[in-house]
């Protein structure tokens, strides 16, 4: 086994700076040291100031050919880039040779989604569908709404029973059950309106009929108006939803671990399979990466509702509510 190469003094000084001045964690310093040793091994007999961008690209190509994964290469480049950003100005080096070099893009893993049959098995499981116990009614409403509207976990938790505004509190997201809609303030403070299907509406109505049992008079407005409450009368915690969904999936005999985002992915996958209207689903999910805000404003909500009604496996919204 080859002995580890010695680091040039400037690299040791940088690691010492990170440890003593920047208070970086020991494991971070150790990782940076390994990455710098990798650079020194690649740049045989070259001084740090002689390494140019073309050399960095050659080293990157060699490592990639040896099987290093994009994330590993990106981490190495980050360490090398950080060293030169600190050291280059000290010695008057004109350019940081790593500045414009990027690692190969990692393949994006596909979102995990359940099949329609698996989703139906989850939501129609007797542990959820047959019980009239208040907490189970709450859980059914939560999971039906997840699958009905493709909400993020944080968005669902933030929902109020309706819009409320006072001197000390204003709803950011809320349900309009008569219109079968939820108004959501999502990522980037972008607001959107999403349809709620018939199955989810029925589940929500059942939950609202018992919700008052959980309201505590002394609670603040944030909790009193929360759509979903915990047993202590507080707005439900995301962890509670995650745990309850995992328990339900186990009871339903599903072969995979189910978390709230799986229901969001399943919503998107199943609607796209049926409608193949990417822009409509994009709008309902509140994504900003595929189309611009200008495109969102051109999408008519009635069009979104009609796409939803035609495509979603559990929609069946009343035609009278779409007028």
Automatic annotation (TrEMBL):
Family matches, as InterPro entries: CB (IPR044068), DNA_brk_join_enz (IPR011010), Integrase-like_cat_sf (IPR013762), Integrase_catalytic (IPR002104), Integrase_recombinase_N (IPR010998), Integrase_SAM-like_N (IPR004107), Recomb_XerC (IPR011931), Tyrosine_recombinase_XerC/XerD (IPR023009)
Pfam family, one: Phage_int_SAM_1
PANTHER family for the chain: PHAGE INTEGRASE-RELATED, TYROSINE RECOMBINASE XERC
Keyword Transferase: no
Protein name per the record: Tyrosine recombinase XerC
Assembly notes: Forms a cyclic heterotetrameric complex composed of two molecules of XerC and two molecules of XerD.
Gene name for this UniProt entry: xerC
Active-site residues, record numbering mapped to chain: 152, 187, 261, 264, 287, 296 (o-(3'-phospho-dna)-tyrosine intermediate)
Keywords, ordered alphabetically: Cell cycle, Cell division, Chromosome partition, Cytoplasm, DNA integration, DNA recombination, DNA-binding
Protein's organism: Orrella daihaiensis
Family affiliation: Belongs to the 'phage' integrase family. XerC subfamily.
SUPFAM superfamilies: DNA breaking-rejoining enzymes
